Every structure is written in C-alpha cells, then in structure tokens.
Amino acid sequence: MASSVAIIIPTRNRATLACQAVQSVLDSATTPAEVVVVDAGSSDDTREQLRRFGDRIRVIEGEPGNAATTRNAGVRASTAPFLGFLDSDDLMLPGKITCLEPVLSGQPDAGLVYGGIQAINESDTVDAEAIARRATPRKGGKPEGATYLSLAEWRDVISTSATLVRRAAFDSIEGYDEELNTCQDWDLYLRLSLRWRLVSKPCFAAKYRVWEGNVSWQRMAIGVAKVAEKHLSELSRVPSEERESAQLVFLGWLAGAHHTLVHRREARTAAMRAIRLHPVRALARPRIRHAFLASFLPGRVLWRRRPVAPREGL
Q: Quick one: which of 104, 243, 249, 254 has the fewest CB in 10 Å?
C-alpha cells in the first residue's frame, strides 16, 4: 500500500551511498508514493547504478549547486502532499512514514513532524560515540515541540533526514533558501515555525551517517553566520514579545561563528551588539561571553590546531 509521501534524495558523486539510501526507502514497511533522486551533475556512475531500480524511482537531472537547489528541484518534480527529504549518505527507517505520516494526516495545522535519528559510521554500524555526542545533556533538555525561539537556541534539534513536511507549508515559505550553501535546513525550520506548528514524535526515522563526507567545521560556521545574519535582518517577522530574545540568540550564534573562524573583529562586533542590547542577559550567554573575551587574544592562542578560515562569503 502506497503512502502520500514523496521521498526526495539529492546526490552528487555518491553512487554507492545513493543506491543504499534508495534501497532503504524501498525496504520500508510502507511504500512511498514517489521516490525522486536529484542528481546534481555527478561525474561518477551514479546514474548508471540507479538504473537497477527501474521505474520504482524517478531520477532527474538537477543543476550543480547546493543542497537547497537540489531539494527544491525534487519538490518541483514530485506531486505527493507530504515531503520527506533524505540525504544521500543517510538511510531511511520505516518510522519516517509509519510514525510521522499519521501526524500530518491527522493534524492539518502541523507543517512539519520530526523523529529521532540513529548515528552510524561509514560501515553502517551504529556509532555509540556519535550518539552520545548528539545526546549530550543540556540544561532544560531539547524541546519536544519546536518553536521559533527553541529552534534558534538549539540549532540541531531537527535532522533533515528524519522529517516530513507538508507541501502546502513548504510552498507557503517558498521552500529552501538557495542563497544558503549550508544550514539551509535550519533556516527552513525557523521560517516554518513562524507560520505552522512543528511536532516531535518519539520514534526513529532515519540513520545519520557520521563520516568524512559531513559538512566541514569551516563551512558549518560560515553557514551559521549567514543564517544568523539573515534572521537578524528579519526580526520584524518575530512576535514582538520574543524579538529581543531572538536577537540575543542570533547575535550569540554570529559571535560564536566568527570566533570559530578566528575572525576576531567580527566576533567582537557581534558580541558588543548583544551587550549593548542587554548587558546582563548577553554576558550570561557563554557563546557571547567567550567570543567577546577571546576576540582580544592573538589568533594562534585561539585555535592552535585550526587554520584561519577564509573571509569569503561573510
């Protein structure tokens, strides 16, 4: 029995992993309505290997670009009312449909539902250390239902491969921002939360692969800075009672990202903006406090084991 879910898998030069991702979808307890693989200009044998699945999947050619462009292309090529994104280095678990789809079917105001992930390594073995790192206890814990402020504070609450999104909700915010090269998913969830309800379900929906192909710390920091800058410029969309808190959170991310990239002047500027806004609340935030104090230290003291990142794109 087919569901009302389209599974969209963007990929580029990951022939073996992409086929494993597709197989994990086809092996699920409930067959998706559509499986769309967007090949963004692979130069390996990805297209040839995908032919083994025949008409059970649809392979389209996407423009070489970032994950946002390929995911948006997959959405345009699909028709199902619910969208499930699966990164080509991850694996889908049956719960992505059996556990998550009933939420969207039964709750019209829910724009997105997300489950949990299991971390695996390159050989598909569950990575206990990676799971422990992602489950590090935090004060107050992670939110069960994601609001704008909670998503701003806890950037990694939602994993892309463990979500289902209502197409109407996705379309209402015009999909992924193709100007963002990384952290497009974080930005998408933030924008969704301002218009729709986001729901958490206690079930495993995907396996997340921890390997050398994951986004590098430099690209991640640059992406965090860009998303923070974007949302700081759009605070008028945030309810007035939450605006100051959101501003402090994003200034903290901006300061922390520049600190990570050893951009001392930019880190200090962002931290000072937060301190001027609300000195006590700003300095109570470790990310702001550490970035501000460290901005006065020489770069070689800050990160002896990391090269200074390029300033391009910031």
A: 243
Each residue's pLDDT tens digit, 60-110: 988 777 999 999 999 999 999 999 999 999 999 999 999 999 999 999 999
Which among 292, 310, 291, 294 has a CA at the least distance from the CA of 302? 294
Residues pairing with 188 in the sheet: none
Q: Decide: 161 and 20 in contact? Cβ < 8 Å.
A: no
Q: Any residues with CB less than 8 A from the CB of 302 and at least 6 apart, and which?
A: 259, 262, 264, 294
Residue-wise pLDDT tens digits, 193-236: 999 999 999 999 999 999 888 899 999 999 999 999 999 999 99
CA distance 35 to 25: 8
> How many Cα atoms are found within 13 Å in the side-chain-facing hemisphere of 254?
25
Q: Tell me how far apart the alpha carbons of residues 209 and 229 are, in angstroms, rounded to a whole number.
A: 29
- Residues 30, 59: contact at Cβ < 8 Å? no
**Amino acid at position 110, single letter:** A
Q: Of all residues in the chain, what percent carry a pLDDT higher than 90? A: 78
Which CATH class name applies to 5-209? alpha beta
The pTM of the full predicted model, rounded to 2 decimals, is: 0.91
- Residue 116 pairs with which residues in a beta bridge? 204
CA atoms within 13 A on the CB side of 167: 15
39-65, pLDDT tens digit by residue?
Answer: 998 999 999 999 999 999 999 988 777
| Residue ranges of the chain assigned to CATH 3.90.550.10 | 5-209
